[in-house]
């Protein structure tokens, strides 16, 4: 296998595997937020604030995977 092909394969795997966890986490997080608001509509503001904070933390993991993939493509 050529080095360029290995580099691109590694970048694809890094992004693909690095996006599985955040994808599942965002789905579970969204489900929990919708369930919480449907059970207690008065707490919508607090739930939404906590949802956005958790969303940002979860999305950061996918961004780190993207950065690693870009580094593998252009630097390695």
Account of the 3D structure:
The protein contains 2 helices and no strands. It is mainly alpha-helical and 76 residues long. It is a multi-pass membrane protein. The chain crosses the membrane at residues 12-31, 51-75. Residues 9-72 form the V-ATPase proteolipid subunit C-like domain. It comes from Dehalogenimonas sp. 4OHTPN.
Write the layout of secondary structure elements.
Blueprint: H1 3-39, H2 44-74
Helix pairs in contact: 1-2
List keywords for this structure.
single chain; mainly alpha; 0% strand
Average pLDDT: 94
Name the overall outline. elongated
How many strands?
0
Category by helix and strand content: mainly alpha
Uncertain stretches of 5 or more adjacent residues = none
- Gyration radius, to the nearest Å? 17 Å
Query: Sheet bearing the most strands, described?
Result: none
Beta-strand share of residues: under 5%
Give the end-to-end Cα distance, rounded to a whole number of Å.
Answer: 16 Å
What is the helix fraction of residues, given as a range? over 70%
Give me the strand/helix succession.
HH
Tally of individual helices: 2
In a nutshell, what does this entry contain?
The protein has 76 residues and is mainly alpha-helical. The protein has helices spanning 3-39, 44-74. The protein contains 2 helices and no strands.
